[in-house]
Amino acid sequence: MAFLAALDHSAFSTWLRGSDSIWAFPTVLTLHTLGMMVLTGASAALDLRLLGVARQIPLLALRGLFPLMWGGFWLNLMTGSMLFVSDATTKGTMPMFFAKLLFVAIGVATTVLIRREVYGRNADPIHVSSTARFLAIASIAAWTLAITAGRLLAYVAA
Amino acid sequence: MNPFGNPADLAHLHLLLNHVPTVGTVLCVGMFLLATVRRNDDLTKVSLEVLFVIAIASLPAYMSGVAAHDVIKDQPGVSETAIATHQSAALLALACMELTGVVAWFAVWQFRRGAGRPPKTLTAVFVLTMLTLAVMAWAANLGGYIRHPEISSVPIDATPASGPRWIDVAALGEWVLAHLWLWPTGETLHFLGMSLSFGILLVINLHVLGFMGNVPFEAVHRLLPWGMAGLMLNVASGMMFFTAVPQQYLENPTFHWKVFLLVLAGLNYLYLTVFDRPWDVPRKGVLLMTDKIVAASSLCLWVGILYLGRMLPYLRGKF
């Protein structure tokens, strides 16, 4: 708790929370939403393809989505950490916050596994395996829950 | 910078736009029937495309109408009852119009997919268009009484029966606010819809920009209805927010810009379905600067919509 309180009282947190500038909290929050949109949006498109939508798209053509997803992920890890330290004592004790982290972790894990399953060394470039389809469903579910938990953070009490 | 700084400007916009859905839907029914009789697929497609454009224009038509309400409500001779009944009927007409527009867009998409006429979707479009036409005419008629009470056979204030009793915009807004779970649910759906719509457009536009190798546009075009599903989710949840606290949005210039970008985003869906340009890119093997600009703009548009939406509470008055 003392650590969380120390984060809360750091100069950076105080600035992020208290500044009237639109470049403080609002911009960090917007960048967090942008990262979410790129990461989960690209992930949803790939998952839909794995589940049989637009089968005419060769799997290899979608490989370029991974750098974008990782870009979104790192942006959100950074902006998410900033948002956390600005409200550490509250967020650090909220079950909903840990639920969100868990869903994000599952989402990232499915992304890594899909990459390995579909684009790994021994992967079939044409056919989608049943493992890949299962991972696609898990990925959609994890990101949907992560977004839901993230959104609810603004509404549930600590 | 805001062209609608004065609420009266939004009232003017309403007078300009409110004829688009009423007159436009009649025109579309005519075109659609003529196309069916003549068995002319091109004319059918035109009527479907126009229906979709009308559905897009109906959003600012409705929202500017709510602003017009505030401008004229205190003027002599204007009945609050007449406005309220018109607005309630208009919200129902808007819902019908949006549904019709989306189904019409889906029919255009099916045509483009190359399987010929989609008979079931076309029947659905026709039924929905006739329904929309009826509700729209009713809403327009009620709207006419606001400034022309002399054409009503009975005094407007004494005729609550002339308006819809079972749908009331003000009560609907209060209902949304009273059910505390609705707002967070709407916000969650709004974020999910945005991600889905953006993800699909990301793949399609990256393709046009040349990042996906030699894949026919037809292949990525198959994804588009999923993006449209995301957009629908956002229009529905967004209209729920607007119905609950319209003033909060109408008074915020950031929101005016957001709606403007949303209209462009809607037209982008039509562009990707109707125009030959994106289809020609891989076929001809050349990427023109205009193709790149349109594709990049489409992605920037969504970043812009996200920015304005997320910054709605913060940018107020900072434009």
Tell me which protein chains meet in the greatest interface and how many residues each side has.
Answer: A-B, 39 and 37 residues
Helix content percent band of chain A: over 70%
Total beta strand runs of chain A: 0
Q: Percent of residues of chain B in helical segments?
A: over 70%
Taken from the alpha-carbon principal axes, the silhouette of chain A is: elongated
Instruction: Estimate the mean pLDDT confidence of chain A.
Output: 93
Instruction: Output mean pLDDT of chain B.
Output: 89
Question: Can you tell me the residue ranges of chain B where pLDDT is under 50 for at least 5 consecutive residues?
Answer: none
Q: What is the total number of structural domains of chain A?
A: 1
Shape of chain B: globular
Tell me the Rg of chain A in angstroms: 18 Å
What can be said about this structure in brief?
The complex is a heterodimer of chains A (158) and B (319). Chain A is mostly helical and 158 residues long. Chain A has helices spanning 2-9, 11-18, 25-50, 65-85, 88-91, 95-119, 130-152.
Structural features, described:
The complex is a heterodimer of chains A (158) and B (319). Chain A is mainly alpha-helical and 158 residues long. Chain A has one domain. Helix content of chain A is 73%, strand content 0%. Chain A has helices at 2-9, 11-18, 25-50, 65-85, 88-91, 95-119, 130-152. In chain A, helix 3 runs antiparallel to helix 4 (65-85), helix 3 runs antiparallel to helix 7 (130-152) and helix 6 (95-119) runs antiparallel to helix 7 (130-152). Chain B folds into 2 domains: 1-166, no CATH class; 168-319, no CATH class. Chain B has helices at residues 7-17, 19-38, 41-72, 80-113, 119-147, 169-178, 182-208, 217-221, 224-244, 246-250, 253-274, 277-284, 289-310, 312-315. Chain B has 319 residues and is an all-alpha fold. Chains A and B meet through helix 3 and helix 7 of A and helix 7, helix 8 and helix 13 of B.
